[in-house]
Amino acid sequence: MNKDSIIFSTSLNYIITIVLLIFSFLFLHTSDKVNRQEHAIDKYKTIVKFVHKQNGKINQEFKKLLNDMNYELLSIEESSRVFEKDRKPIFIRGKGRDSFRVYEIEGNNYLIFGRVHDGFIIKDNEYSKKDTNIYLSSVFILLFFVITFLYIKTLKKLSPLKKLKQNFAKLAEENYDIEFEESSKKDEISLLINEFKNTAKKLKDIKESRNVFIRNIMHELKTPITKGKIVQELPKSEKNDQILKMVFNKLESLINEFANIEELIATKKKINKKSYYLADLIDEAKDILMIEDDLVDCEFENIKLNVNFKLFSIALKNLIDNAVKYSKNSKVIIRTENEDILIINEAEALKDDFENYLEPFSKKSSNESFGLGLYIVYNILKANSYDVNYRHKDGKNIITLKRI
């Protein structure tokens, strides 16, 4: 195990804490035993002096004094019963005939002066055993389980760090498919993991947008490039030069627009919006698409929209392009219903759920693929506070742009 790791340090702290806890328990247990012995010695000083003054004489007065002091002199039969088994004294004090021993038997204290079988055996009737070891043991066990529980809980909280390290390695290899259990906890590690997941998702979006851009730029540039090639083959003239110049301007415009789209999809940043007429947006879309006016039937009310002009025009351009491409009569109708914008063409209904066509790399048949189209449309519309939905009615596909 790595000695510099947090888990190793936590485990080491746990072991040290448990060892210190055990030593504390042993120390308190020993101290308690010594304190009880010292207390007993202080308590029995008087009775020891009294017994020694008797010089081994037992009479009624002696017994009465013992009873008055809450002590009891045991008879031979009682002594034999109590000490029928070998017992070990709690402590021994004094030497020779002045010595005495204290035994603790069945919760009672017994003082023996001389030997067990021929000496005085006095029972302390006032003694009540208070076993503090039970309390010490209970506290020790409780602390042990609490510390162990906290240790296990801490390890559990730290366990995602190992997976986090592995995912950092995956991230370095541009693998953004990060797997973590969902957590609503607010501890530092959970917050770090959530931030890591958000970062990985953002990087994945950036990579995805890059892939969309690279895979589809040729598709979008195909029309102006084709027109440029055709013009290049035509006889040189001022008109053809103007057309060729216009083609290159459109190519430059498309590249700039793609850069804006890529940045929008990757960063999800807020865009600048102003109020524009729908007719101006449609005209811009047709100019970008370089489509003939008679292919677009404008049946809309010229409402004002609060949008980003360039990006919203690109979204309309993609919708018009797809509508014309898949239309049976190569035409598209643009209408309005209140604030909603409808893009309509005569075509077969989509074979799959509309939401699947909003994915950047949805695998559809070539005759039903929208390429970059709807993915870009969806992201641009969302940035402009619009939603897009689809329905098929009376042999027509109807895509509706609805203000959110």
UniProtKB/TrEMBL annotation:
What is a GO molecular function of this protein?
Answer: phosphorelay sensor kinase activity
Q: What class of enzyme is it?
A: transferase
The organism's place on the tree of life at top rank: Bacteria
Q: Which UniProt keywords apply?
A: Kinase, Membrane, Phosphoprotein, Transferase, Transmembrane, Transmembrane helix
Lineage here is: Bacteria, Pseudomonadati, Campylobacterota, Epsilonproteobacteria, Campylobacterales
> Coiled-coil regions in this chain?
none
The protein's name is: histidine kinase
Give the chief site where it resides: membrane
Report the subcellular localization: Membrane
For this record, the Gene Ontology CC terms, alphabetical, are: membrane
**Reactions mediated catalytically:** ATP + protein L-histidine = ADP + protein N-phospho-L-histidine
The HAMP domain covers 158-208
Transmembrane stretches, start-end: 6-28, 133-152
EC no. given is: 2.7.13.3
Q: What species does this protein belong to?
A: Arcobacter porcinus
Q: Domain Histidine kinase: where? A: 216-404
Q: How does it sit in the membrane?
A: Multi-pass membrane protein
